[in-house]
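seq:
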Amino acid sequence: MGVVDLFAIANRIAERINDSPEPLFKLRVVSLDGLPMVCSNGYQVAVDGSVADISSSDIVYISAFTIATRSELEAAIPRWQVILPWLRQHGPDQNLIATSCSGSFLLAEAGLLDGQPATTAWWLAKYFVERYPEVRFDPDAICTVAENIVCGAATTSYQDVCLAVIERFGGKHFARLAAKYMMVDNQRRSQAPYAILSLIENDDKVVAKAEGWIRANLNQEFSIEQVADFAAVSPRTLIRRFQKNLGESPQSFTQKLRVEKCKTLLETTQLKFGEIVVRCGYSDESAFRRLFKRHCQLSPRDYRRRFNTATAD
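struct:
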């Protein structure tokens, strides 16, 4: 309904500035078979027709699905088989198809994103890359725009996707007006600041043991040899196991954990950055500042300004 609201507001703005009752967008909600839909939150949504009523000149917005884990994704894909034939047949010639979050998986499953830029929610990025290696995936993008496909990142990126569509058909000035009236932040360029490095999904006992030790010792500098000693393997074996199970080295994984700890301290404390750096196991403040900006696309100062919830003494 947020998507419907954005385009409805765009029509109201167009009516006023163009002094014409003709809407810029004609809105219809359709389901696969024309029957009402039941959303994941239990609400029923009435529809105006079925996918058979969609013409090639239409803009198709596909809502996201409630998917948070690999197992939920694997359970959803078989259910998508009923819509994939329609997407494969009509998608390439459709005027425009837009979606966000887990909806990108549906388009990728239909083969519509092969060779195209795309994004999805940051917590689904790893699964996406593994399943669809032919897609030009951008893990940091809020919104990607191809010839006739627009993809958005996590949940509220549907706003960025809608504004991208409005801009394409109404112009940049018109899209800025819509963003201002709806108070939508259309200046976001990356979802990197929002990403959280949660507990990893991993069946390798050596990696799991090493991960636990790394997390417990982030406040100090340590070597790969120390981690390997605790995990009772050689450094070479530890590196190989990390690469196989996580797709990165222990050093890279440790850097991400240090950045994650820094983000938490920037969000929840008024500690000086130099003290935060020490608590994250670094002695070189400048080097850690560069590392943080590379991972978050924001400087530590800008990150604190945006996300800090602590009250100064």
